[in-house]
């Protein structure tokens, strides 16, 4: 097991060397104000056997979770995914795995709200635009997941009990409850499982804790970095400076300064966006993405790079886009929504199916957005017309559909030969990055909801109102329908009967009138 | 005013001008507004035509649920340019006008109407803005309507083989015209059968003492099977089968699935005019309580009326009136109903109106028209509340509105049935005699 703790401080944050102290036995943090990434790498034999079996059936497995609370994402941790749990999965070749075991494990680990039967039935297949980019997963799953409580309980129950240092394990697990995002990566080449939590800010009072040197000194290792971003020389690079050390090995932190090309870059704090569904939403809600002028400035990519603003929608099965409508090249439609083009779509795009007959979790949409002349000072509104599926009846006549905010980012071409992988903080397999070529740089906009509001929009979906008692019972609808149709049927039959009976007379009568 | 109808060129000119104006206006709106004039279905057709033009299957396009013939017909729309894009609409609009011309012609030839009067009634279709609007927006109903009118004309003028071919083609195109088989078969040779029946009854009464009852039934059956009826059946069956086999060989399973099987398996859970729509939503979502599965019997009243009782009772009196009543019953009792279905029976209006009580008693006629429109408007308002305002108007709003619309339709159907029942079988025969 290897652990890497990265503490990232903003240049303006006051820092006192006594706040981080490394001794030969432990690292102690005192009231340190910093963003933090805590990454633990497990070898296969260090994880519970049930989990190991599932992992061994994967060629690659990436789990991405983001909290519904808005959080900063400073470089080099600038990349984002929509709030909720994303699972990207590529099955191992020739591996005899019953697909259901992955879903069972996901339910065990993340809770029963993970509505997953098997990868075949529940996952969607993302379009692979660039086959060169082998990192694209072959199947993708998403579910709303407001908290990691279930995961924490699973780790405490299933992992910590057999751990060499159960207390430390439990403490680490507990800390995940306040994480802003979580990554789990496994691939069959390295045979290693990494779990990374990210906290955009320190808990109240700052980070204060003692991290003891590993119990099993031969195999385990704890690295610590106290870093801050420095101005980089090349636009595609990030430069970090600060102190590094290995707990138990070094008796003091050593200064460091390094730079690397990065896939994901941050943008200034003013580069924000907000998402809303202007009422009335009806059955055809329109997602509105509002961008202030600061978000429309070309990112600081190299001058010869081509940049375009994009959004990536993760839509649960309750809501969907019309791929024929959105993939149009009609400039009038596109400009009326400030869209440029639909670049990729995957998943449940059936225009007619009700929610209960849709087995997969939903759909993903990569849209390129139109951008105005950057000198215009006005807000820019992008709208995406969407549609709701019919949902199950309910007693109130309304059901709720939760839609996570999409991510919005600039994608810029990077020079050939840019080695993104050398970045020690590189993050790929987010669902949307695989839809671009490998030499692409992303500049993330910051989601900015109303104070206290989550990064999820709740839509009220009108459904058939159905009560157990009273007037709006299913039985009433059934019987009233049958009664009215029978009456109508009998009425017409009776009229026909009158005609048939009076046929002789009818003929005479018409004979008279003519 | 009447003089206008003495000049067909004026009426057809106006009908064509109306459609041309709408076509040009539609092209303008499509080019200048994000809200399109063109119907979404037309985009489905043209996408499918593009697939066909590239040698692919039209079923590669989602929600293409029609015969490949339609996509073939529209292959020119795959060519670049706005004219070619509008080709299908032009074709549909032209079908409308031809349907109107056929109506007027057959009103003269088969119903002995004065040409000017015939044209006046044909104008109910030709100059109907709703009809012109639907076809210029790119809905294929116009194509179907011209086939149905041609079928009626062929039957009325006893071109039996042609009628059979048209019937087969129409059923291949849109299933529901199969109900006309019943009325046309019943109507054809009704004269001969009538005389046969009267002779058998007279003989059986004269020989009532020794006469065997089975002889009467047997004779009836034998007299029912006439060469014309066999011809019609064979022509229809051959056309229908040949088309389906060809399409199946060309496009395989997807053709069967999307053109026919889809209609058997579909559950129309979404709101529409049908009285069944709330029940079907309930059933589809698995929330039914009685478990009696009424909805699976929905075809019973629909087919009993449109295929059996209406043709039997009315078929020998007036073919056009019977077909109108059949279509009206089929649409009213259908499990799914949208406004384009109304075109299916509106095409018969010029045949029905001249001798209907709706014109003889203007007050009744106005009541029918007002109720039909108001019942739809009430439903549309509930639909708007649901779809655009997000109100949960399924019950009681849409539920009651669709039942109300159904009740109005049943009442209207009762009037149509009574009106057609008052006609004598002589009308069409007499005139036919004159033509021959």
TrEMBL record, chain A:
Membrane topology term: Single-pass membrane protein; Single-pass type III membrane protein
A GO cellular component annotation in the UniProt record: endoplasmic reticulum membrane
Subcellular location: Endoplasmic reticulum membrane
Pfam families: PIG-X
InterPro entries associated with the record: Pbn1, PIG-X/PBN1
Entry keyword Transmembrane helix: yes
Coarse class of the protein's main subcellular location: endoplasmic reticulum
Transmembrane segments: 476-494
Keywords in alphabetical order: Endoplasmic reticulum, Glycoprotein, GPI-anchor biosynthesis, Membrane, Transmembrane, Transmembrane helix
Pathway: Glycolipid biosynthesis; glycosylphosphatidylinositol-anchor biosynthesis
Gene Ontology MF term list: mannosyltransferase activity
Name of the protein this chain belongs to: Protein PBN1
An individual GO BP term: GPI anchor biosynthetic process
Recorded family membership: Belongs to the PIGX family.
Automatic annotation (TrEMBL), chain B:
UniProt keyword list: Endoplasmic reticulum, Glycosyltransferase, GPI-anchor biosynthesis, Membrane, Transferase, Transmembrane, Transmembrane helix
GO CC terms in record: endoplasmic reticulum membrane; glycosylphosphatidylinositol-mannosyltransferase I complex
UniProt KW Transferase keyword: yes
Location within or outside the cell: Endoplasmic reticulum membrane
Enzyme class: transferase
Membrane disposition: Multi-pass membrane protein
EC number: 2.4.1.-
Gene Ontology MF terms in the entry: alpha-1,4-mannosyltransferase activity; GPI mannosyltransferase activity
Top-rank lineage group of the source organism: Eukaryota
Residues spanning the membrane: 9-28, 83-103, 143-161, 167-188, 230-251, 297-315, 327-353, 394-417
Cited InterPro entries: PIG-M
Pathway: Glycolipid biosynthesis; glycosylphosphatidylinositol-anchor biosynthesis
Record-level GO BP terms: GPI anchor biosynthetic process
Protein family (similarity comment): Belongs to the PIGM family.
Role, per record: Mannosyltransferase involved in glycosylphosphatidylinositol-anchor biosynthesis. Transfers the first alpha-1,4-mannose to GlcN-acyl-PI during GPI precursor assembly. Required for cell wall integrity.
Protein name: GPI mannosyltransferase 1
